[in-house]
Amino acid sequence: MSNPQELEDVTAQACCAPLSGPVLGEREAAELAGVFKALSDPVRLRLLNLIASHEGGETCVCELTGRFEVSAPTVSHHLKVLRRAGLIDGERRGTWVYYRVVRERLTRLSGLFALPASPRPEARSPSSR
Amino acid sequence: MSNPQELEDVTAQACCAPLSGPVLGEREAAELAGVFKALSDPVRLRLLNLIASHEGGETCVCELTGRFEVSAPTVSHHLKVLRRAGLIDGERRGTWVYYRVVRERLTRLSGLFALPASPRPEARSPSSR
DNA sequence: CATCTAATTTGACATCCATCTATTGATGGA
DNA sequence: TCCATCAATAGATGGATGTCAAATTAGATG
What we know:
2 copies of one chain form a homodimer.
Chain A lengths: L25 H13 L3 H12 L4 E3 H4 L7 H13 L3 E6 L2 E6 L1 H10 L17
Antiparallel strand pairs in A: 1-3, 2-3
Helix pairs in contact in A: 2-4
Chain B binds a DNA duplex through helix 4.
């Protein structure tokens, strides 16, 4: 799961500066978009939620399949997508596989939506172009 | 743009509790996923970034088209998607249309990725099932 | 009213993606 | 070694989505 060559992280240096910060380059935008794409599915969101809120910090896949209206392979697929986005990481222990969230990743995303103190509404110059 | 019946907000009560919080219901997950879907495109991300970082707090569409490798109708389409997700709002003034970010929306997203103090790693009960 | 420009909508098309069934890989017990 | 179970992969398919060109709407101006 955390095997280096098995699944490269497509979003290595994505995300950091807030969305209201300096202009996003094409590359950063693409990487960031990848993370959000991973979060853009209801099932994946619920999977992430279950894993993140599970006591012990990790969840067995066997606890996830059957809890959704989709088949086990589909759950597996979604876990893979979350993993490729760097949001979770998995580890096999005997028969079962356990997933946990990548804390730093979630923490970083949080900062993305920070906004500056004020949008200076007095500066509303209509046709200032 | 902010015309009530023109474009209903599909994510009215989406998002609030952190992803690590109480279990996400199907409906909340679907609504939240919608917001992330809106953020899952590089062009949309750059548009949002430009609007959010523009001085005066708003940006004329005329400043956005031509700044991308996509056509004007496509930019318009993406702005509509961001609008439907409740991330931006637009207003026509004379010939031009101006967009601004919905601050509270971005602020709320920030809280989503908050994590509890510690995942209690000692509680790693392998096959507690 | 005619016309020009800004922005959006429409319709078409190619690609991507979530889902399933069937199969394969991995682990552990009889 | 054989089999049962958990998890992931492979391949197929229907629906969603990003894109564009062309048409349309909305204001401003002559």
